[in-house]
Amino acid sequence: MLTVDNIEKNPSPQQTSGTTVTAFVLGILSILVPYVGFVLGIIAIILGKKALNRIKQTGEPGHGLALAGFICGIVGTALYALIIGFFVVAFIFFEMSTSDLEEVSIVTNLLVAV
């Protein structure tokens, strides 16, 4: 039976902050959503770090969610940075003419010989 004495003895648990939950959701989305994940990851990193600092100061719950959002944001940002970098490098090489590629091979041969 719920009485006033029971409510005072069992206070409601603290709620996780919105920043923590947002960092977690954006961190996961940064891995799952192509190309936009790069931007979502950066936002998740910022919000995750902000939430971790606040949790460290106030002791509120949600450390695991904030940390997961922070780490997922890093993974998502790095993943899509590598993918975008690969496409940029591939585009540059495919745009080169065959004479440019011959020059590149001559330079690489010289560097390997040294």
From TrEMBL:
<protein>
    <recommendedName>
        <fullName>DUF4190 domain-containing protein</fullName>
    </recommendedName>
</protein>
<feature type="domain" description="DUF4190">
    <location>
        <begin position="21"/>
        <end position="82"/>
    </location>
</feature>
<keyword id="KW-0472">Membrane</keyword>
<feature type="transmembrane region" description="Helical">
    <location>
        <begin position="20"/>
        <end position="47"/>
    </location>
</feature>
<dbReference type="Pfam" id="PF13828">
    <property type="entry name" value="DUF4190"/>
</dbReference>
<feature type="transmembrane region" description="Helical">
    <location>
        <begin position="67"/>
        <end position="94"/>
    </location>
</feature>
<keyword id="KW-0812">Transmembrane</keyword>
<keyword id="KW-1133">Transmembrane helix</keyword>
<dbReference type="InterPro" id="IPR025241">
    <property type="entry name" value="DUF4190"/>
</dbReference>
